[in-house]
Design a protein that fits this description.
Number of helices: 15
Distance between the termini: 36 Å
CATH architecture of the largest domain: 3-Layer(aba) Sandwich
Strand content: 15-25%
CATH topology of the largest domain: Aminopeptidase
Number of strands: 20
Shape: elongated
CATH class of the largest domain: Alpha Beta
Radius of gyration: 25 Å
Bound molecules: ligand BES, manganese (II) ion, zinc ion
Structural class: alpha/beta
């Protein structure tokens, strides 16, 4: 999709469709008012007839409105003016994209970014416009058969070009900067969605490693892939134990975006990259097991965030670490009862081979020490228990440092990609006691997401660390099954804030 910033009159700007807002109680937005005037009250007449009441999530398409250059006009309900917030604004954008998704209007001109939204600058409104439009218009059709002509036609439908209008000529420059931010974020989000949605026979550990290398070449950052032999030398007994039941070789991906000052300690992002989680010998039940292709969404979000910050050319030192493998049952697979030696030296009793995420992350957390990080944030589809605790709205946030936790919480709020701070008190630690090793890999049914975080905390003692459990937020199930690209917005906001504060 192409975007450009305009500063024009709604009646003059030529497109296939002008998009304008109407509040509940039938109050017209400024752009709608202007169109009502040039059309001799055409819009107010329609509202009087009761065909559009301005409620949120409603739209009405009009054709050939007198005095207006564009042949179509889409009225978008905005809800109550007094309640028109960032959230309502995004809702209106989504409704407009949806309304045009199956129509013939390919060049649209939106005036929604002119709407006043509490505390939002024109720059932020335009960034949200690009981001939300691309999120709503996203389709995963990379591997659908394309021979069928009717399918091709379908692919052509919807918005191809969007003009985003701003009220003042003086806002154009800011709006362009906002557009660039929004596009960079959208491209990382879309990349993360694609990686998640790809089938597990395509998106293997090797594939993820290749994607990292391609991205690094394109944006000129360093990428290193460690193979099994090197991982053995490093002593990553825990990571390798998870991979040993699979025919797919494990990969350990290291990406280095070093655009901050030379002496600036880096932020390290660690992403769980299980490209398929069968549970291993502790095999999962069959229902919905296909969704365990999304068990690499932590890795996908780290790759997506790297794409975004590369496109932004963000002035910050950031390291990305992705341990990636499959968790399969096999004659050589790890058994319940096996004791592993992690890279840190801590021994781990495997009581359930399905608690594999923490087993690959713990070695990555130890590896992260060598970068002397200012903070380490790991991202993982770690526990079903987190979905039970928080559902599909909030990511679970755990940390050994409250300042870091608050920084991430704020970034989540600001980017509409929210997390919720969960407790990680020492009281929970004894649940991981083992009779046969330093630590067990599970802590029982109670507080499952917390004991998983407690397990990771044992390997993150040397730096400020946070853990994001995205099991409930990384993808959607059911009819709308698909990756969400979360938490790329949260991570990006967090890193942008760090880059801004390091400038001061
Ligand atoms: N990848 C799963 C977690 C998961 C399950 C995420 C369902 C989203 C939906 C993880 O590897 C796992 O299997 N965790 C176990 C841990 C248990 C054995 C302690 C779980 O949550 O059941
Ligand atoms: Mn598992
Ligand atoms: Zn898993």
């Amino acid at each position: 999709m192409e975007f450009s910033i305009k500063n024009d009159n709604p009646e003059k700007l030529l497109s296939d469709c002008v998009i304008i807002g109407v509040y509940e109680s039938q109050k017209l937005s400024n752009a709608a008012l202007a169109l009502d005037n040039v059309s001799g009250g055409y819009l107010s007449n329609i509202l009087k007839r009761g065909d559009m009441d301005g409620k949120a999530d409603t739209t009405l398409m009009l054709h050939n409105v007198p005095g207006v250059a564009s042949e179509r006009m889409l009225l978008v309900g905005l809800g109550k003016e007094s309640e028109f917030s960032e959230k309502q604004y995004c809702k209106a954008i989504r409704a407009s994209v949806k309304a045009l998704s199956n129509g013939g209007a390919s060049k649209a001109a939106t005036f929604l970014a002119e709407l006043p939204v509490k505390q939002l600058s024109a720059k932020r409104k335009v960034a949200l416009m690009a981001e939300t439009t691309l999120d709503a218009a996203y389709r995963f059709d990379a591997i659908k058969r394309k021979k069928d002509e009717s399918k091709k036609e379908e692919a052509k439908k919807g918005i191809a070009t969007l003009y985003i209008n701003v009220t003042l000529a003086s806002e154009v420059k800011e709006a362009k900067a906002g557009l660039a931010d929004g596009l960079a974020l959208a491209s990382g989000v879309s990349f993360a969605k694609d990686l998640g949605n790809l089938p597990p026979n395509v998106c293997t550990p090797t594939y993820l490693a290749e994607q990292a290398q391609t991205l690094g070449k394109k944006h000129d950052f360093k990428v290193k892939i460690l193979e099994r032999e090197e991982l053995k030398k490093l002593g990553m007994g825990s990571f390798l134990a998870v991979s040993q039941g699979s025919e797919e070789p494990p990969k350990f991906i290291i990406m280095q975006h070093l655009k901050g000052k030379k002496d600036q300690k880096p932020v390290v992002l660690v992403g769980k990259g299980i490209t398929f989680d069968t549970g291993g010998i502790s095999l999962k039940p069959g229902a919905e097991m296909d969704e365990m292709k999304y068990d690499m969404c932590g890795a996908a979000s780290v790759l997506g965030t790297f794409k975004t910050i590369s496109e932004m050319d963000l002035a910050l030192n950031v390291i990305g670490i992705i341990p990636t493998c499959e968790n399969m049952p096999d004659g050589r697979a790890t058994r319940p009862g096996d004791v592993l030696t992690s890279m840190s030296g801590l021994t781990i009793e495997v009581l359930n081979t399905d608690a594999e995420g923490r087993l690959i992350l713990c070695d990555a957390l130890t590896y992260a020490e060598r970068f002397e990080p200012s903070a380490v944030v790991d991202v993982a589809t770690l526990t079903g228990a987190c979905v039970i605790a928080l559902g599909h709205h909030a990511t679970g946030l755990f940390s050994n440092n409250d300042d870091l936790a608050n920084e991430l919480l704020k970034a989540g709020e600001a980017s509409l990609d929210r997390a919720w701070h969960m407790p990680m008190w020492d009281d929970y630690q004894p649940l991981l006691d083992s009779n046969f090793a330093d630590i067990a890999n599970i802590g029982g049914r109670a507080a499952g997401s917390i004991t998983a975080a407690c397990f990771l905390s044992r390997f993150a003692k040397k730096y400020d660390w946070a853990h994001l459990d995205i099991a409930g937020t990384a993808w959607k199930s059911g009819k709308e099954k698909g990756g969400t690209g979360r938490p790329v917005p949260l991570l990006t906001e967090f890193l942008v804030n760090r880059a801004n504060s390091s400038k001061k």
